[in-house]
Amino acid sequence: MSANEVIRIEGLVKRFGRISALNGIDLSVKAGEVRAFLGPNGAGKSTTIRCLLGILRATSGSVRLFGQDAWTDAVELHKRLAYVPGDVNLWDNLTGGEVIDLFLSLRGTKPDRAARQKYLDLFELDPSKKCRTYSKGNRQKVALVAAFASDAELFVLDEPTSGLDPLLEKVFQDCVGVIKARGRTVLLSSHIMSEAEKLADSVSIIKDGRIVMEGVMRDIAARGASLEELFLSEYKGRVS
Amino acid sequence: MTTAGYARYSRFIIRRERVVGLIWLLAMPLAAFGLASLYPGLLPTPESLLSMASTMNTPAMVAMMGPVYGLDSLTPAIAMSQECLIWFAIASILMNIFFVNRHTRVDEELGRHEMFAALPVGRLAGGASVIVDALVMDVVITILTALLLIALDVGGTTAAGAFAYASSIGAQGFLFAAVTLLTAQLFSTAHGSMGAAFAFMGISYIMRASGDVSGGALSLISPMGLGLKVQAFYANAFWPIAALIAEAVAVAALALVVNARRDVGSGVFPARKGRDSASRFLQSPLGLAWRLSRGTFIAWAVAFLTLGAMYGAVLGELDSFVEGNDVIRRMLEGQLGAKSLVDAYIPLLGCVMALIASIPVVNTVNRLRAEERRGRLEQVYARAASRRAMFAGFAAIAAAEAVVFTFLSAFGLYVSASGTGLVSLGAIMGASFAYVPAILTLAAVAAMLVGIAPRLTALTWALFGYSFIMMYFGRLFDMPTVLPRLSPFSAVPQLPVEAFRAVPIAVMCGLSALMCGVGLAGYRERDTRY
Q: Which of A127, A192, B173, B222 has CB atoms 3.0–4.6 Å from B207's, for a disulfide?
């Protein structure tokens, strides 16, 4: 594993009983890179990410972050990463502010109050409301604020903008721009091609638990193809 | 037209209930049938009926299950009603609370109600459908239960008795359906609405218990006390049923009036705002575990103090109760030698309270699994929090609950009984704390299952149920001695009647630590999954 590799997955297989969700994923993401991670529902994106987070244990293969094992060194590794799930479930009887603080402080560092306030303002989130009263989009914002207000080195974003309106989608893109400029690494799973096209340096496409295509955005643009065309062609089985 | 679309909505509810509702509709009458069928075998002779009635006619039992009646003409049917009616009433009440809350506040909170509000459906269609459907369910359960009991025909069964018994179950349930419809209007969250309905049930039970023991009017004010006044298979009074239905109709009407006037999504009591940032203590796994358990912890703490005080008040009247009852007097004295009646009661009360205390304690352990299933813990574990810390956090809170709840119930008992001069604080605390290892054993079983067999966490409740039955029937009937021994609660030395035995206590503590360790080891190795 080279020194500047942040994510290194080799031959990752994950089975749930007899069902095989991942059939040998290989993925390598360098420091400072924004990698789009595309694939339709059920292709294995979230399973890959959960293995990356040490929430699921790999059946075989290796998953390493910052050179450490994602399962055994999970706690140490998670001090250095921030995660936003696509479907945010929150505790009914806690407020958004409490959840953000909880998430920030569970990273093991002292929460940065100024950053927290900045992102609360940016995403226009009222932190004193109980989570049970939040809409889907507002629950999503809680997770986004908690992630961006942290000083993580790696951001794992699993369809992070589901439920956000276009204005907030723009805010989100600006936030990714800022962390990218600071040299942070981002793994962005998404269904929104324009979002991935705008933000990503490179792209990996997953199909049936395997990576079927990898490329650098510059090259794709140079070939005159859009990401959407590429994605659709991969899934329809013909190349445009 | 405020009830436009009523029929359609009502059918929609029944469709949504076709599995859960059907299970309740069949399970309640069948359980009533099954339990009743045991009675002729359990109590075959007039002597056994009388001896059972004597046991039942003691303050702790009256407080638990209601007043004894029909002593001049005891039958197995009367004994059955005496011991079972209250439990079926509670089950029926729970069913109604869950049912109404599910179709009112829960729907509203999840935004599902909105879709209907956007359709041409009257404002009252929802509320009216729910309460009428609840009534239909209660009537079906009543009729099925009564018919099954008539068909079973245990000694002393009459058609009037069977209908008095069954309609008391149905009518109490229906009143609580109406109460829940009202709380669903008052509180703006499903949690608050259901909590209020449960609180009302708890108050009704406690009012009934103290009314039944002291012979006061509290039993008539409490719906659960009223429900027992039917005296099924003896007096067969139907006026309590009529009173319960009248109350239910009045409460439901009030609820619908409020329903028609309020905004969708709002309540009479608005949702409170909370803190806008986390306290220092919350910012750790233990802190999170505590914060998630805090509300129920406080509610149970109050309940245990009250429960202890209630039993304590009864304890003072123990002698006057036994005064007029030679059979029980001889029975207890023969058993105890020189010890006083009160001393004989203390370990029984300790056991009852310990069993009840194990409900919230096991719930706290199982919450670790519940949180996992709802997909919340993965956000915690995605951060620098270890599974060990989270597991230890919930385990520590469960253990603390076992100690605190035991202390509070014993303390409540002592305070309210201290006026009689019959009890010492040391004796009560000793008898109660002897049961803490048994509670911990049950909690450790839960922890082990969460760790190594998360799909089988219900097994803990099976062990709980077994222990409860052994405590309850093991004392009432002669059982083969091996059966009760399988319950941790039966292994506890009966202080102050028996001498203290360190071995069972040490074994249970060691076993608890071992099972907890196995659970933790399993929990660290397995996937975190829904």
A: B222
